[in-house]
Amino acid sequence: xxxxxxxxxxxxxxxxxxxxxxxxxxxxxxxxxxxxxxxxxxxxxxxxxxxxxxxxxxxxxxxxxxxxxxxxxxxxxxxxxxxxxxxxxxxxxxxxxxxxxxxxxxxxxxxxxxxxxxxxxxxxxxxxxxx
Length: 131
Prior knowledge:
By secondary structure, this protein is mainly alpha-helical. It has helices spanning 3-83, 88-118. The mean pLDDT is 87.
């Protein structure tokens, strides 16, 4: 073997190693790019689910506060009128209003609880996007 042949073979071997390294690097880049896209999609979906649940629950809290206020207002009105001199018709009207408010309150609270059951806060996504 002459020196140019040895050099050519060595260059061929080095060329093959470089080609294999290039193929490995490209394959690795594609693999990690796909994994990153999958993980971003998973995190985005979890964030959207959490955002939706928190929005619904905030709305429900507002509705519940309004229902509580209406009951307290009706009770305070009925208590204020009960201490004053009222006709039996006015007392009956106050009682009916109070009963209506309590029935509406019970209905509203039942609806709120049902909606909360249907919109639970998603679990913390630790580990859910791995794999």
